[in-house]
Amino acid sequence: LYVDSPLAEGQSVGLDHERAHFLRHVLRLDRGDPVAVFNGRDGEWRAVIDGFGKGWCSLTVAEQRRRQDVTPDLWLLFAPLKKGRIDFVAEKATEMGVSRLWPVFTRRTDPNRVNIDRLRANAVEAAEQCERLSVPEMGEAVPLDRALADWPADRKLYLCAEAGSARPIAEVLRDAPPGPAALLVGPEGGFDQSELDELAKLPFVVPVGLGPRILRADTAVVAALACWQSLTGD
Ligand code: SAM
After folding, report:
1. In the structure, which protein residues have their CB atom closer than 6 angstroms to any atom of ligand 1?
2. Domain Ribosomal RNA small subunit methyltransferase E methyltransferase: where (predicted)?
3. E-assigned strands of 106-210?
4. What is the domain partition of the chain in residue ranges?
């Protein structure tokens, strides 16, 4: 269970209504029952339920069960999609170990689509489900050119480009030096040609192809991350 509090032996942790409800009525836990908790910094701990109140639950942290894991230093920049599909992206990218989820507005993106709280809630749920001990950081939703303006020079940005001329991602990643990286996937309507031309001029951008067919944006995210994982082992 993800908690937003420091974790140390004897520490008391209060849970909000939603989490209290989940423990009591979904998992059917009671006072004295153990719960595994993590906060993204201190590893996984065993905690014990002290009691439930009206809309709350308190726990006491007992001992550490796992040290904090190390996630790959991989960001995912993606153009916000429709509700169900953006939920899917947050969930799958979290399961695949992405360290930062960063919605960016491209020229063909609807800027009203991002709900960071919902994105984060999906990421928290996915982290809990896959037993990852961190939740991806959320980048502030900004236009793509703003996200790229302060781009760290040592971080490669793999641009998933459907145009067909890009080298296959597997080939590119096999030769890539290890280090910080990011993947960029466009919106349903793809990137604008002028946008692709501007991206091509940036020294840290490396176009990659995901095969001969045009994948939906959410499929492209999973395909790119699966290649990343199988080639880097992360
Ligand atoms: N309407 C666009 C077109 O026909 O050019 C297709 C956009 S595609 C549905 C959404 C995004 O997924 C693209 O911007 C790209 O980032 C990624 N994508 C889809 N298929 C791809 C492929 N075969 N190789 C690389 N990226 C791909």
Report:
1. 160-162, 185-186, 188-191, 209-211, 213-217, 220
2. 73-229
3. 137-138, 142-143, 156-160, 167-168, 181-185, 205-209
4. 12-66, 74-232
